[in-house]
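F.,

This is the one I mentioned.
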């Protein structure tokens, strides 16, 4: 099969055709509902453009034109209206950030937060975003996934001069599409994104298609290298990331996601990890992937799933009806991504004689506690009880006490809490399961009844 290159105004020969004209044509096609085949014959950018950029829209109002997105452990960037333009102000600066209780690092963030606050607006909105650089290094901001003029794209040296320390730059563009996007430094990306200079962008549709979500969550996936006892992320790390995060928090530092039975829940995942893709798995549900940062997934291409692979440099949005109450784990299914500050160059000790090893090590390393002979599950609990020393400012393999024992997970792990009644969004108590639906130790009578010999 051959795919012909679309002949568009962007071709070098058609210099008389301005970009604005291209947008007009793309917008007109979308608006008049011409055949999809015609739309796909346009360039990729116009196919995701859903409003006519020549048209002027009233600024979208939160609570009226859209249900505001929730950024767990984060916030939404405020704006002010100036002559119909939404004006935002991002300030890059060093930030002391807590990843989980007991682990804080000196990162770089926006407006005092790691990651930056979520930028939220409506398709058709005109936005003006000022960026003030209070870092010791030059930076830029790239608006990942947004269709905008090349000069607003934020690639240092290519589309703009870097923003030097102390300078304030102005970006201004119209949002011509809806969906889930991201922003991040595009100057010395390896260093600056590893230090935390990333954030989410949510653009709501001007005219929603389908039912609105009752709860709309935004979660950025990222990974860090913070050696136990140190206080700075290491941007040079390539493989052994040891702090894996939802919105820059590692479990038990992640805020749970709440929903009431029957709610339509939308979760927007973005991934700006340095080197990893994350398969995010939700327990208790099957969901549908409804959009990527490239646009809505056509209904004919949507399919049910329980795990969504979020590649780095991409967003995936999932939706489901919260019809199954409970406390449901939601986590990256890469098992090393639900451990925090785990040393991955450990010797294999499973099955070793713990006492013999302790006795042998004692003369050389007094106080040594041999761990790992039956797995890593007890490590966090021993640390929590103070039996086991770890360096200051570290949470090696620490999970959390749960209602039925110790939760041996850390890192990219959170909990979806679905309740029949939520008086407010702050109910973070454990789910009270019906006894008949609770797994527990089998009784002798049950074993005898079913002929199970143990
Ligand atoms: Cu992962």
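My design for it:
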């Amino acid at each position: 099969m051959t795919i012909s290159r679309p002949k568009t105004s962007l071709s070098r020969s058609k210099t008389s055709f301005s970009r604005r004209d291209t947008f007009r044509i793309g917008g007109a096609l979308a608006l008049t509902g011409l055949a999809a085949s015609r739309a796909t014959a346009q360039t990729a950018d116009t196919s995701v453009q859903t409003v006519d950029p020549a048209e002027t829209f009233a600024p979208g109002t939160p609570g009226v034109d859209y249900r505001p997105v929730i950024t767990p452990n984060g916030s939404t960037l405020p704006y002010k209206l100036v002559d119909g333009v939404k004006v935002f102000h991002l300030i890059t600066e060093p930030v002391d950030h807590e990843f989980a209780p007991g682990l804080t690092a000196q990162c770089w963030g926006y407006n005092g937060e790691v990651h930056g606050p979520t930028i939220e607006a409506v398709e058709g909105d005109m936005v003006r975003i000022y960026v003030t650089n209070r870092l010791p290094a030059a930076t830029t901001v790239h608006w990942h996934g947004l269709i905008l003029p090349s000069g607003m794209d934020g690639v240092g040296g290519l589309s703009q001069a870097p923003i030097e320390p102390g300078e304030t730059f102005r970006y201004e563009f119209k949002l011509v599409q809806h969906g889930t996007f991201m922003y991040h430094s595009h100057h010395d990306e390896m260093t600056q994104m590893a230090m935390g200079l990333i954030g989410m962008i949510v653009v709501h549709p001007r005219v929603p298609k389908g039912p609105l979500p009752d709860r709309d969550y935004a979660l950025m996936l990222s990974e860090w290298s913070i050696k136990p006892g140190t206080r700075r992320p290491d941007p040079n790390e390539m493989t052994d990331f040891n702090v894996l995060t939802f919105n820059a928090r590692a479990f038990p530092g992640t805020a749970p996601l709440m929903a009431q039975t029957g709610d339509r829940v939308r979760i927007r995942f973005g991934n700006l990890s340095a080197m990893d893709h994350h398969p995010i798995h939700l327990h208790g549900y099957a969901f549908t992937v409804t959009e990527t940062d490239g646009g809505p997934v056509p209904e004919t291409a949507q399919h049910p799933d329980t795990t969504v692979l979020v590649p780095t440099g991409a967003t995936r949005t999932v939706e489901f009806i919260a019809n199954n109450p409970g406390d449901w784990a939601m986590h990256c299914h890469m098992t090393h991504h639900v451990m925090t500050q785990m040393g991955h160059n450990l010797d294999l000790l499973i099955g070793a004689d713990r006492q013999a090893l302790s006795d042998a090590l004692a003369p050389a390393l007094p106080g040594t506690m041999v761990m790992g002979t039956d797995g890593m599950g007890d490590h966090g609990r021993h640390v929590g009880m103070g039996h086991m020393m770890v360096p200051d400012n570290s949470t090696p393999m620490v999970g959390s006490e749960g209602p039925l024992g110790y939760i041996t997970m850390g890192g990219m792990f959170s909990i979806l809490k679905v309740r029949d009644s939520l008086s407010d969004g702050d109910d973070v108590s454990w789910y009270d399961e019906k006894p008949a639906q609770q797994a527990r130790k089998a009784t002798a009578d049950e074993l005898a009844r079913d002929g199970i010999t143990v």
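Residues 244, 276, 278, 332, 334, 337, 412 surround copper (II) ion (CB under 6 Å).

Talk soon.
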